[in-house]
Amino acid sequence: MAPKRKGKKGKTRGTPIVDGLAPEDMSKEQVEEHVGRIREELDREREERNYFQLERDKIHTFWEITRRQLEEKKAELRNKDREMEEAEERHQVEIKVYKQKVKHLLYEHQNSLTETKAESAVVMKLAQKEHRTQEGALRRDMRALKVELKEQELASEVVVKNLRL
Fold it and tell me: What is the pTM of this model?
């Protein structure tokens, strides 16, 4: 903003007073001197005006650049947010897929375990049956052998008795 003027040119209701004199009372040199001061002041005011316009333009340019940077950063932030949301969705889908795979593997494992237990129970029963059968056969063979042994002992006793006689 331009500084306030300090009354070099004061205004009254009638004629303006310059340096304490009315313009009609001034000599040519005084008027020229006064015109020179006014021109200097005009030049100074123009320089100030140009300076402030340049400053205003700089601030406006800076504002525009900053506003554009802000918009770019907001766009980047929106993109990053969208990327994060997409990554989160992909992650949730992956977790869901892995959970389904684990559930499927657990189901298969449980089925396999159940089948293995059932097969082992059947094999165990068959083995027990086979062992019982073999044990029964062995016991019969043993009885038969004992009976045969008894018969041979009796026969050998009869032979010994006959030999004694």
Answer: 0.45
